Amino acid sequence: MGRYVTVSVKVPVEVRDKLRKYGVKLSELLKRAIYEELRRREVEEVERELKELRHVLKGFSREFVVKALREDRESR
Q1: Which of 3, 52, 7 shows the shortest CA–CA distance to 26?
Q2: Residues whose CB is less than 8 angstroms from the CB of residue 19 and which lie 6 or more positions away in sequence, other chains included
Q3: Cα–chain-centroid distance for residue 65?
Q4: 16: number of Cβ within 10 Å
Q5: Alpha helices, DSSP H, located in 1-76
Q6: Which of the 8 DSSP states describes residue 6?
Q7: Given pLDDT bands bounded at 50, 70 and 90, which one contains residue 1?
Q8: Residue 26 contacts residue 16 (beta carbons within 8 Å)
Q9: Cα 75 from Cα 17, distance rounded (Å)
Q10: How much of the chain, in percent, has pLDDT values that exceed 70?
Q11: Is the distance from CB of 26 to CB of 19 less than 8 angstroms?
């Protein structure tokens, strides 16, 4: 992640002042909220994809999957 973009947000002065009063750094709060939202949506996307593939995955036994994963790891 070498490139960045600046994002701004307007909040009422009172909100900013209260955040300062409690020692909350607005930029850190916003970054954390953005990353958490991104992670939440990525998890939702993976869950949707798994749900769509569930019928395909049922065709493989647990032993087959474990063996395939081990072989893949050992080949690296």
Answers
A1: 7
A2: 26, 29
A3: 25
A4: 13
A5: 13-21, 26-57, 62-74
A6: -
A7: low
A8: yes
A9: 57
A10: 99
A11: yes
What number is the average pLDDT over the span 50-74?
88
* pTM value > 0.70: no
Q: HSE-up of 7 (CA within 13 Å, CB side)?
A: 7
* CA 68 – CA 61 distance, rounded (Å): 11
User: Is the distance from CB of 30 to CB of 9 less than 8 angstroms?
Assistant: yes
For the record, the structure tokens of 42 come out as 């990525």
Long-range contacts of 26-32 (CB under 8 A, 24+ apart): none
Residue 56 has pLDDT above 90, yes or no: no
CA–CA gap between residue 57 and residue 44 (Å, rounded)? 19
CB environment 49-66: b (16+ within 10 A), e (fewer) = eeeeeeeeeeeeeeeeee
